[in-house]
UniProtKB/TrEMBL annotation:
Annotated localization: Cytoplasm
GO biological process, one term: glyceraldehyde-3-phosphate biosynthetic process
Pathway(s) the chain acts in: Carbohydrate biosynthesis; gluconeogenesis; Carbohydrate degradation; glycolysis; D-glyceraldehyde 3-phosphate from glycerone phosphate: step 1/1; Carbohydrate metabolism; erythritol degradation
Active-site positions on this chain: H92, E163
UniProt record similarity statement: Belongs to the triosephosphate isomerase family.
One cellular component (GO) term of this entry: cytosol
Xref: NCBIfam families: tim
EC number, as in UniProt: 5.3.1.1
Described purpose of this protein according to its UniProt entry: Involved in the gluconeogenesis. Catalyzes stereospecifically the conversion of dihydroxyacetone phosphate (DHAP) to D-glyceraldehyde-3-phosphate (G3P).
This protein's name: Triosephosphate isomerase
Subunit organization: Homodimer.
PANTHER family: TRIOSEPHOSPHATE ISOMERASE
Cytoplasm as UniProt keyword: yes
Length: 248
């Protein structure tokens, strides 16, 4: 079986402060060395509040699909990279639902991030209605096709995040068996684009991941880590999640 390095990514969303950045750094610095990759994606204005460290990477929560120009309020991939971001979250369900990020835009942003030598964490997931109608796999296949069907070369540079929309910020979590079934489907489906890349790509789970449920999730063979929301704002709990990943 292909060994994939676990990735635990903190998505602070529109939360946080300089003080939280300091607390987070101090807590993570006390963790024992491990193979787990830790990523923190704060609001971009806090990127420079994190000292350079070999204990974690920094990322952004969004990126412009444009290179530069008259796009007030947007931040380019090159700007994010210059600010210290090595990853960027793309296509999060909140971006799709609240700000109109379409599959076409997600593809454009993914290409832009990779061109700037950042790793995109490309998010996909289904709504509660779609799951109840047993359309989960159909919905995910459509999203995956939109990004990778015409551009399979992007897969080897990507991280995939499965985030069931019904489990984000709700306290609800897909059971380990449910999450594993979807992750296994995603990996198998990706093989038609690039078999080798599909075996190596990290597929992480996002959806109310916390210190209580993470160990069972990370124990699944196709779950390679987590995209952590609310729990990532609590340094001690986030550190516990990171420890759990290295023990899985």
């Amino acid at each position: 079986m292909t060994q994939r390095r676990p990735l635990i990514a903190a998505n602070w969303k529109m939360n946080g402060s300089c003080e939280l950045a300091v607390q987070c750094c101090e807590t993570l610095s006390q963790l024992p060395a491990s193979n787990t990759e830790i990523l923190i994606c704060p609001p971009v204005i806090f990127l420079n509040d994190f000292p350079k460290s070999d204990r974690y990477q920094l990322g952004a929560q969004n990126v412009s699909s444009e290179v530069s120009g008259a796009f007030t309020g947007e931040i380019s991939a090159d700007m994010l990279a210059a600010a210290g971001a090595s990853y960027v979250i793309i296509g999060h369900s909140e971006r799709r639902a609240l700000f109109g990020d379409t599959d076409t835009l997600v593809l454009a942003k993914t290409k832009r991030a990779i061109a700037a030598k950042m790793t995109p964490i490309v998010c996909f997931g289904e709504t509660l209605t779609e799951r109840q109608q047993e359309k989960t796999m159909q919905v995910l296949a459509q999203h995956l096709d939109a990004v990778y069907a015409a551009h399979p070369e992007l897969l080897q540079h990507s991280v995939i995040a499965y985030e069931p929309i019904w489990a984000i910020g709700t306290g609800e979590t897909a059971s380990p068996a449910q999450a594993q079934a979807v992750h296994a489907f995603i990996r198998t489906y990706l093989k038609k684009y690039d078999d080798a890349a599909a075996s190596k790509v990290r597929i992480i789970y996002g959806g109310s991941v916390n210190a209580e449920n993470c160990a069972a999730l990370f124990a699944q063979p196709d779950i390679d880590g987590g995209l952590v929301g609310g729990a990532s704002l609590k340094p001690a709990e986030f550190a516990a999640i990171c420890l759990s990943a290295q023990d899985s």
